[in-house]
Design a protein that fits this description.
alpha+beta, five-stranded antiparallel β-sheet, 3 helices, about 20% helix, elongated
């Protein structure tokens, strides 16, 4: 299984979340990194690095999901995926918005936005 989601903020591409071989990776878009007005999605994913590995991305994605195991089980049934997998086990893994501060898009849909909680 290999999946990608665009992360967008205010109509601009921030980067891409990639899921392949049970590993997550986040790559910042070069234009986002070079913009003086840009900001990191998480302090654990600084703009100084383009790529961020599973060890950093997985906790970030997991932190966007609800704490309720029952909600995660319902999502798993609805999207026919494991509720234990933060990428595939959430609406975001299906290209739908997650009920959190972060939204994603399976395609470059510029109506979707990523708004880190720190920016609220």
């Amino acid at each position: 299984m290999s999946e990608e989601l665009e992360a967008l903020f205010d109509g601009r591409r921030v980067g891409r979340i990639r899921y392949a071989g049970d590993r997550l990776r986040f790559d910042y878009d070069d234009a986002w990194r070079e913009d003086r007005a840009s900001f990191p999605l998480s302090l654990s994913m600084p703009l100084t690095s383009r790529e961020h590995p599973d060890a950093v991305v997985r906790p970030f994605i997991s932190g966007l999901l609800p704490d309720s195991h029952e909600t995660l089980r319902r999502w798993g049934r609805r999207f026919q995926v494991s509720p234990r997998e933060p990428f595939a086990g959430s609406p975001a893994g299906s290209g739908e918005n997650v009920p959190s501060a972060c939204n994603t898009s399976a395609a470059p849909d510029l109506s979707a936005t990523v708004i880190p909680a720190a920016a609220k």
